[in-house]
Amino acid sequence: MGAGMFKVKEPKAQSRKAMFSKVNASLVIVLALMVVFPFFWMVRSSFMSNLEIHQYPPLFLPKNWRFDNYSYTLTVFPFGRYFLNTLTIAIPSMFGVLLTSSLAAYTFARLEFPGKRFWFTLVIGSMLMPGAVFIIPIFMAWSSVGLSNSYIPLIVPAFLGGGGLNIFLIRQFMMTIPREMDEAAYIDGATHLDIIFRLLLPMIKPVLITVGLLTFILYWNDLMGPLIYISRNERNTISQALANFRSGFGTDWRAIMVASTMSILPSVFIYFIGQKYFVEGIVLTGLK
Question: How far apart are CA 53 and CA 76, in angstroms?
């Protein structure tokens, strides 16, 4: 009788599980469409005329694909110069964050010192502090040394800790590596730097790529920092130039859509290259 009862309940459990799977899949599809649709709408608008962009009801696809919109936009929007300006900030900042956050993460993952738990809690708590609180005092500090109109205030902070989230991600990944490997390296005469750069970092490549991707995209899309510290037009980043371009060409939506599309292509391209490691780094970070 007991066996018969289990047989009756089993199909119900399976049907309930199948229903939840369908609901979850539907939610994922809806969320994916919500994320992708604005990107699709922007790209599609970049091939339209201004009249088609404002047409109501809106067109799903252009009637005539205007590829010349891109050549036209490049004549009024010097993308190459702004591209190099943004790389000048994003690449050094990315390496600075990777370096300093790795060193800090190793300190919290492997070393023992007084107040370790307190300092780690303080680092994690720093993520709750709004960055806007520090804008004015930091700007005044850079202005006092005559560096307010340069890239230095945008790059140097990346070498001063790397951020609480990045430290946490790398530390969690390091905690999954057995300490016995460190001890074996110590016996062979390795120093702390040897263990970090020759042993641990090669083993945590997924999380390093994750942090690198997040950092690069953060600096690539940053608008607030360049608006505060850069006033010369020839030094503008892509985000800053795009904001100014929007102000100067408020009615030319085709050019704005083209410039917006080109501005996000590098970060999208880099993400797809490191997507495998990005997902792996996020998933494995919570193992310990």
Answer: 20
